[in-house]
């Protein structure tokens, strides 16, 4: 029975993604994020959290949809959003999961490298006290660190020192 339920849920997800794709939903959401990311009003942050959640769900385990979002240039906007709204836990988590999905594709690394993602992730890692949150950051760091440019950016942003301090506290 569990396998049937799982297959049913996957079919619904695929149908939902197709409907969003056909309606141009990813473009609409990406444009809304680009127009709202600088606004720090609480109502706006809730809306941005929902939009980032939509991108996260849309891009999960689907290379073609991930590529579509990358081609729309959503990565630089999400990195800026993270820098502005890192105090918002829910929004930060949505960004990190979306980054993890998008970082799976090699083509995303170039866009990530053109941003200050290394500085943002190191700053966020230093700020986190919960193990689960640090783990979420590691899940983004791992695929990004496969890229030589990003690797250097992470070193310059102080990741090595940050990790050593963290390790010594364990």
From TrEMBL:
SUPFAM superfamilies per record: ARM repeat
Keywords, sorted A to Z: Cytoplasm, Endoplasmic reticulum, Mitochondrion
One annotated Gene Ontology cellular component of this protein: mitochondrion
SMART domains registered for this protein in UniProt: ARM
Location(s) in or outside the cell: Cytoplasm, Cytosol; Endoplasmic reticulum; Mitochondrion
Gene Ontology MF: a single term: guanyl-nucleotide exchange factor activity
Broad class of the protein's primary localization: cytoplasm
The keyword Endoplasmic reticulum belongs to this UniProt entry's keyword annotation: yes
InterPro entries per UniProt: ARM-like, ARM-type_fold, Armadillo, RAP1GDS1
Domain of life: Eukaryota
PANTHER family noted in UniProt: RAP1 GTPASE-GDP DISSOCIATION STIMULATOR 1
UniProt name for this protein: Rap1 GTPase-GDP dissociation stimulator 1
């Amino acid at each position: 029975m569990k396998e049937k339920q799982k297959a049913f849920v996957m079919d619904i997800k695929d149908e939902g993604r197709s409907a969003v794709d056909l309606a141009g939903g990813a473009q609409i959401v990406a444009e809304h994020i680009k127009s709202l990311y600088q606004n720090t009003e609480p109502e706006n942050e809730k809306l941005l959290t929902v939009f980032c959640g939509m991108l996260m769900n849309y891009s999960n385990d689907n290379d073609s949809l991930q590529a579509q979002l990358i081609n729309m240039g959503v990565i630089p906007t999400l990195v800026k959003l993270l820098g502005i709204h890192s105090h918002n836990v829910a929004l930060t988590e949505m960004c990190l999961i979306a980054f993890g999905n998008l970082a799976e594709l090699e083509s995303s690394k170039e866009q990530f490298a053109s941003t200050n993602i290394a500085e943002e992730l190191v700053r966020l890692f230093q700020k986190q006290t919960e193990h689960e949150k640090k783990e979420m950051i590691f899940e983004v760091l791992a695929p990004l660190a496969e890229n030589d440019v990003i690797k250097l950016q992470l070193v310059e942003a102080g990741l090595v020192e940050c990790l050593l301090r963290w390790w010594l506290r364990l």
